[in-house]
Specification:
This protein is mostly helical. It contains five helices and no strands.
Length: about 80
């Protein structure tokens, strides 16, 4: 997805390893509590281990939250979205 690609470009890391419930603790956490809280606990492997939430702008976080929304009907898209 575009959201996952932008996440990887910014953090040089995946948001989660797998999107199958129960297979990835990061995915399960984000699905339950939201991306914002996940980034508040997930550390960057580089830049001294800072929390991801400390280095992301509020605007870019809002874009990622919209693009990575777990409900497909509520997920943002570019251009003409189709059902």
């Amino acid at each position: 997805s575009l959201g996952a690609m932008l996440f990887m470009m910014d953090f040089v890391d995946y948001p989660w390893a797998c999107t199958v419930r129960g297979s990835c603790p990061h995915f399960d956490y984000a699905q339950r509590y939201g991306l914002r809280r996940l980034l508040g606990m997930k550390r960057l492997q580089r830049f001294g281990g800072q929390l991801m939430s400390e280095v992301i702008s509020k605007d870019f976080l809002a874009v990622l939250e919209a693009l990575l929304h777990f409900a497909p009907a509520r997920r943002a898209c570019l251009g003409g979205c189709r059902d």
